[in-house]
Amino acid sequence: MLPKWRVKRWESLENAALREFQEETGLYGSQLGQKIGTIRDRLRRKKITFYWIYNTTRHTSVTDEAIMWIELSQAAWKMKHKSEQKFIEKHL
């Protein structure tokens, strides 16, 4: 799955993206890049916005099994949700 987040009342969409990326991957020192796109989940009535993340360094005890780095060309078929598969095929 791609890292996702909930925006807290006091934070911007961009800050939430960085915070959740760091929490879910254990990679810190990141910089937010440009927005890639948005998925609309009509069933749960929410929008999921994705960004490029750059310059990450590892500063946590998250195990390597929790993170899988793969080539972009292989990413779509690794996704759990169809909406993420379609998103990757379209945007990446």
Describe this structure in words.
- This protein has 92 residues and is of the alpha+beta class.
- 33% of the residues lie in helices and 26% in strands.
- The strands form 2 sheets. A two-stranded antiparallel sheet has the order 1-4. Strands 2-3 form a two-stranded antiparallel ribbon.
- A hairpin with a 4-residue loop joins strand 2 and strand 3.
- The longest helix is centred in the N-terminal third of the chain and has 13 residues, at 13-25.
- The model has no long low-confidence stretch (mean pLDDT 77).
Ordered list of secondary-structure elements with their pairings:
Blueprint: H1 13-25, E1 27-28, E2 31-41, E3 46-54, E4 57-58, H2 72-78, H3 82-91
Antiparallel strand pairs: 1-4, 2-3
Helix pairs in contact: 2-3
Specify the structural class: alpha+beta
**Number of beta-strand segments:** 4
The residue ranges in which pLDDT falls below 50 over 5 or more consecutive positions are none
Backbone CA Rg: 13 Å
Q: What composes the largest sheet?
A: 2 strands, antiparallel
Number of helices: 3
Question: What share of residues is helical?
Answer: 25-40%
N-to-C span? 15 Å
Return the string of H and E elements: HEEEEHH
**Strand order in space, largest sheet:** 1-4
